[in-house]
């Protein structure tokens, strides 16, 4: 039996996906020596339950798939769409481990999330059972020497762009070309203009 893949799980709303998400994932793929990174498009984030600004689940997935089409090793994934909601990371990783027993799944989170990781559902179990890659976030200092053995800090570039800013710019009729991949530029503008 051959060795399975090492797959980074990068979860988020991707509301919509932008160039920062993609550039970050490419750095993590390389620096953490992963075989693939799966963009786990979340249908409903437990921390954003009341988010009325969330684009349609399947549209966010389609845009992520389209944006990543030519990116080697990066894939958009609807796995959580088929799990009970809200989608907790522990449940997702357990289900993935069951469905892909030969592969190793590595959790990718930002430094801001690592600093409040103890509030996560089954945080102790996650730490015990999975490797975690933590990437740099502004105003979230991490002392890499203090991390548990299975937690790796990757010092990635900071990308000063956000999905919130993109949605705001569309509402205000400002350009978003430098923020989102060319492949989905029109999709984002058309959808957000018709669903303010």
Chain-wise SSE layout:
Blueprint: E1 6-12, H1 19-31, E2 36-41, H2 57-68, E3 74-77, H3 89-99, E4 104-110, H4 111-114, H5 123-129, E5 131-135, E6 151-154, H6 163-171, H7 185-194
Parallel strand pairs: 1-2, 1-4, 2-3, 4-5, 5-6
Describe the structure.
With 196 residues, the protein is α/β, with parallel strands linked by helices. It is built from seven helices and six strands, in the order βαβαβαβααββαα. The chain has a six-stranded parallel sheet with strand order 3-2-1-4-5-6, sandwiched between helices. The longest helix is centred in the first third of the chain and has 13 residues, at 19-31.
Give a quick summary of the entry:
This protein has 196 residues and is of the alpha/beta class. The chain has 7 helices and 6 strands, in the order βαβαβαβααββαα. The chain has a 6-stranded parallel beta sheet, with helices on both faces.
Helix share, percent: 25-40%
Encode the helix/strand succession as letters: EHEHEHEHHEEHH
Give the overall average pLDDT. Answer: 91
How many extended strands?
A: 6
Instruction: Detail the poorly predicted runs.
Output: none
Report the sheet-strand fraction: 15-25%
Biggest β-sheet strands, sense, barrel: 6 strands, parallel
Radius of gyration: 17 Å
Major sheet: arrangement of strands: 3-2-1-4-5-6
Number of helices: 7
* Morphology call: globular
Distance between the termini: 52 Å
The SS-based structural class is alpha/beta
């Amino acid at each position: 039996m051959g060795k399975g893949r090492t797959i980074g799980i990068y979860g988020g709303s991707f509301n919509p996906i932008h160039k920062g998400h993609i550039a970050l994932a490419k750095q993590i793929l390389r620096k953490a020596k992963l075989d693939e990174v799966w963009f786990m498009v979340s249908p409903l984030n437990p921390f954003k339950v009341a988010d009325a600004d969330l684009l349609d689940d399947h549209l966010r997935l389609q845009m992520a798939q389209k944006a990543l089409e030519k990116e080697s090793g990066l894939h958009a994934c609807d796995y959580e769409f088929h799990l009970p909601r809200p989608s907790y990371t522990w449940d997702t990783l357990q289900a993935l481990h069951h469905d892909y027993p030969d592969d190793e799944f590595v959790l990718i989170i930002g430094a801001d999330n690592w600093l409040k990781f103890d509030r996560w559902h089954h945080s102790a179990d996650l730490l015990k059972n999975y490797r975690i890659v933590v990437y740099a976030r502004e105003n979230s200092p991490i002392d890499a020497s203090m991390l548990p053995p299975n937690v790796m800090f990757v010092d990635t570039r900071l990308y000063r762009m956000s999905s919130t800013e993109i949605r705001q710019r569309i509402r205000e009729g400002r350009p978003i070309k430098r923020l989102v991949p060319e492949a989905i530029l029109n999709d984002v503008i058309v959808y957000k203009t018709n669903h303010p």
